[in-house]
Amino acid sequence: MTQEKFIEFILKLSAIVTILTTIGILYVLLSESISFFKEVSIIEFLTNKEWTPLFVKKNFGILPLVTGTLLTTFIAVSVALPVGITIAIYLSEYANKKFKKITKPLLEILAAVPTVVYGFFALAVVTPFLQSFIPNLSGFNSLSAGIVMGIMIIPYVSSLSEDALSAVPKSLRNASYGMGATRLQTSFRVMVPAASSGIIVSVILAFSRAIGETMIVAIAAGQQPRLTVDPTVPISTITAYIVQVAKGDVPHNSLEYKTIFAAGISLFILTFLLNNISFYIRKKFREQYD
Amino acid sequence: MKTKIEAKNIDVFYGDFQALRNINMQFEENAVTALIGPSGCGKSTYLRLFNRMNDYIDSFNMNGEIVIDGKNIYEKNVLVDELRKGIGMVFQKPNPFPKSIFENVSYGLKIQGIKDKDFLNRRVRKALEQSALWDEVKNDLDKSALALSGGQQQRLCIARTLAVEPKILLMDEPTSALDPIATAKVEELIHQLKEKYTIIIVTHNMQQASRISDFTAFFYMGDLIEYDKTDTIFTKPKNERTQNYITGRFG
Amino acid sequence: MTNSTKNRIKDRIFNFIGIFATLIGIIILGFFIGSILYDGLTRIDWDFLNSLPSRKAEKAGILTAWSGSLWIVIFTFLVVVPLGIAAGIYLEEYGDKSKLSSLLEVNISNLAGVPSVIYGLLGLEIFVRLMNLGSSILAGSFTLALLVLPIIIVATREALKAVPPSIRAASYGLGATKWQTVWYQILPAAGGGILTGVILAISRAVGETAPLIVIGALAYVPFTPSSPMDEFTVLPIQIFNWISRPQHEFTINAAAAIIILLIITFIMNGIAVYFRNKWQKKINW
Description:
B: alpha/beta; four-stranded antiparallel β-sheet; 10 strands; globular; C: globular
């Protein structure tokens, strides 16, 4: 083999590590959850309304964890979506260069702060603050966790949406201004509709990011699986449950140990679907402007 | 003949670069004035002064006055959006919104808050008739404007500006992206429109300027070199650079 | 009031809403950080940085935590940087339009979207158990390396893409081989962009908690690691542990440790932004 060929081989091997990683993830999740589903029926897993694998009376219904995950995610997205899209419109249609140059790195910091720090904020700052308005708010709750998570994902929504807005041909903006439209009219009647698929992608990715977020909920939401949509009471999420079990001393190959892989594969499927929907939309969207 | 627009002592800067130098010009009402000159001579910048489209460019700076109907449009209390409603602009490349034909043409009226369906229908039809597009699209008003051919799209963009009944039309190389047949249709249209509108058109195409305009202004490196009746410019220009440019010896 | 007037007013109002939205997240974060500083700043001293963990809050320090973080970062760096840059080069310079290339591309996009806790499950089964590394620094570093690998690959590709084709053409024109062109011309030209990606990836690794908890990193480690096979804790896990304690003194410890973690994160991100700006200016060829 020549030196050139050898180098190419090494490079290729490095790239293939990513495929091995995927295979590894699938293998790990599937093998452990298959052995889990040998002991617990998939029907029970999907329909039982309680999740108490660590109790004496064990229940294996994933629903409480899924609703907990979706609850915090919806709270987070309902914070990040309006703020993020407003930022995107403001930065692409209103702000001058200087303002952009200063604020964009600052916004990135929001996504760079370690999640364990956000968890602390949710527990030690936001919950006590909210309790002064909502007296029956529990010390652990999905509301604070969701709000703080929302702040964290603002830059995901804003930067992807801004990219989508700036991909809209300038000529459309000029056409609208030329007719006497205000910046606001141009933004909402021309730019946002033209960038809609890119904006949708940013929202889906924000959902996916929030679903997979772990530490904020593990710290501030309570680690108590509960089938509820009440944002004021303690709940758990798929991710928080995995951390909770991993932190404790659960013997390998026990059923409790396998539950984290069953939870893991549920999480993987959820985020995999969302990510690929967004890839599909993005691909179609690219073709539209090519 | 009556003066519709007057440019007084115009200087334009982008940062340190001076794009236009001391321009003074008067535009006749209901006439077509062509702005010609090599790329980068400042003619597009100049055109965009008349509806203040340069305002959003960060480094843009200007001195002088643009007077339309006796009023300087660069005075502080001028409402830019109001101003633009009276001045239509057609761009180099057709730029229809990714919406239906009807929504494109009615856009200008809708942003003025007009919701009356009958009124919108009438105006859309009238604008499409004026731009000689009605017969081609009257059954497809709900179809996407992006499905039209390039020439049709450009006439749609003209219809879009006509729907708000402006007094002035600014055209920035409106046929540069079109094939010869579509170009001929748009030129024909410009010829008809000048009865009602004051038209300023930027063009790279000498034949086009001589075919459709009443007056022609030649720009070079930010200076207005010569401005006269189109016939005079193309038959006996006073300046040597104009002569060289229109005969294709440079630019 | 005419419609135009109303529209103008709405436009003005949105201008303020936009500024407000842009700043609100930053302001809230600033407020958070302020309250953390208030809680934890006085707790930071030489002893805090140099003490082992303790059941007594006022004696506990972050020595094992930050030294664990340092070990983890070094080994993660050693694994992921060559791997990520090599994979990025392959995809951008060598990868053709074959099935493998498009598979790799889709796959990397997907990996970038996999939640970090799932990487923890991967590391737990493969590195900790199958490869029998135990809950060691090596197992933790491998896990984090796979987690941040997509970041470095994507950054490398972006940086390579920004190198103008004329440089490649010039090098090939002189008779250079593909690898010579990559090694002597393209990589140096793309260095700033790659460096930015590497710093951001490492910064991410420093802050990661969940995957390391899942692979069994301990909350309480009474010694500093002395080999890559030792068990370990890291700053974020130490913080998580202290947050979970009910006593107020531990909350203060957590706040103090958070200040240290944030300083590290902000410095790394600041350097990354600096390099990116510098590099972007330079590539205005």
